[in-house]
């Protein structure tokens, strides 16, 4: 089962006639939750093999990163940097994977890469994505599918508290909100994911490690005119306990202007609070917005180092900078 954190006053808008949408009382937030069932599980044995192989064979890791030099595919900043998020990640898209040279692809396929790519290809199809966009459309009163035509997807494999500089650090993944419309988080059964209560900031609700969770991001909030809240979350792992997750990120088409889809909302109708002038005037594209968020993310995963005097935890927060952009 997967859960979507939704506004507490939106449950009445759900259409019970839809076979893909039903109500759920999953205790992850005081907000109403909506559930879909993707009937698919991540290949965690393959994910474990691939992560271990890249850790044990740095030459293969370097060869993989050489094809995406600026941001890298394998993020190992946690290994030397105890202040970054204490996890190791592998970031890919199906388009990027297609560019991996044949000889390297063959080596990594023996370590689980093909199983992982097949999994993400399956979960990226419309049978999984369509029902979630449908649900978000109902909650927001907009047509979310209209700005999700080009399959702007990416995925991440996360290996927590393994080969990290500070394995006793509970801050496996600091508090943040995702960039896109939504993220589907597949877990290996190990707890650690927590979602902040939308109605009580600072209050955290643990999520069962067996749940597949759908987390809404900044793009969903803006496109919905504020009707769909962002889902702030973090990962707190136990020292010595390895935790794996696989995440599919779904974003609007890159050229889409990040502003409320409903013209009534753009003209000052119902919304949580006024958006910034930059948002309401259509100056922010999805592609540009992702680049802004990506720079802060690279600090957090250890790919880039903050300037001296700006290395405190607060300055590393993605959300504080993005809130200024979104709300003004």
TrEMBL record:
Origin: domain of life: Eukaryota
Compositionally biased tracts (Low complexity): 8-18
Domain named Isopenicillin N synthase-like Fe(2+) 2OG dioxygenase: residues: 160-248
InterPro entries the record matches: IPNS-like_FE2OG_OXY, IPNS-like_sf, Iron_ascorbate_oxido_reductase
Residue ranges of the TM segments: none
Region (Disordered): 1-38
Family listed: Belongs to the iron/ascorbate-dependent oxidoreductase family.
Composition bias type Polar residues, residue spans: 19-38
A Pfam family matched in the record: 2OG-FeII_Oxy
Name this polypeptide is given: Isopenicillin N synthase-like Fe(2+) 2OG dioxygenase domain-containing protein
């Amino acid at each position: 089962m997967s859960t979507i954190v939704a506004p507490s006053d939106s449950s009445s808008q759900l259409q019970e006639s839809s076979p893909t949408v039903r109500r759920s009382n999953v205790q992850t937030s005081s907000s109403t939750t909506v559930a879909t069932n993707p009937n698919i599980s991540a290949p965690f044995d393959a994910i474990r093999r691939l992560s271990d192989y890249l850790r044990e064979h740095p030459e293969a890791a370097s060869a993989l990163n050489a094809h995406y030099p600026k941001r890298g595919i394998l993020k190992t900043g946690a290994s030397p940097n105890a202040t970054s998020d204490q996890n190791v990640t592998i970031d890919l898209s199906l388009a990027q994977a297609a560019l991996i040279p044949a000889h390297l692809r063959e080596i990594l396929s023996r370590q689980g890469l093909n199983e992982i790519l097949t999994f993400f290809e399956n979960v990226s199809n419309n049978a999984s994505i369509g029902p979630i966009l449908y649900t978000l459309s109902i909650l927001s009163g907009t047509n979310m599918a209209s700005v999700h035509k080009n399959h702007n997807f990416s995925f991440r494999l996360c290996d927590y508290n393994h080969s990290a500089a500070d394995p006793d650090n509970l801050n496996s993944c600091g508090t943040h909100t995702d960039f896109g419309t939504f993220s589907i988080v597949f877990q290996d059964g190990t707890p650690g994911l927590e979602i902040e209560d939308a109605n009580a900031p600072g209050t955290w609700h643990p999520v069962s490690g067996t749940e597949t969770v759908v987390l809404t991001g900044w793009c969903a909030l803006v496109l919905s005119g504020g009707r769909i809240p962002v889902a702030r979350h973090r990962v707190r792992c136990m020292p010595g306990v390895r935790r794996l997750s696989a995440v599919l990120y779904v974003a609007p088409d890159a050229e889409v202007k990040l502003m409320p889809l409903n013209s009534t909302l753009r003209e000052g109708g119902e919304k949580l609070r006024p958006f910034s002038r930059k948002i309401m005037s259509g100056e922010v594209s999805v592609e540009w917005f992702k680049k802004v968020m990506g720079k802060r993310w690279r600090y957090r995963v250890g790919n880039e180092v903050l300037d001296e005097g700006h290395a405190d935890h607060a300055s590393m927060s993605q959300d504080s900078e993005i809130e200024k952009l979104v709300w003004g």
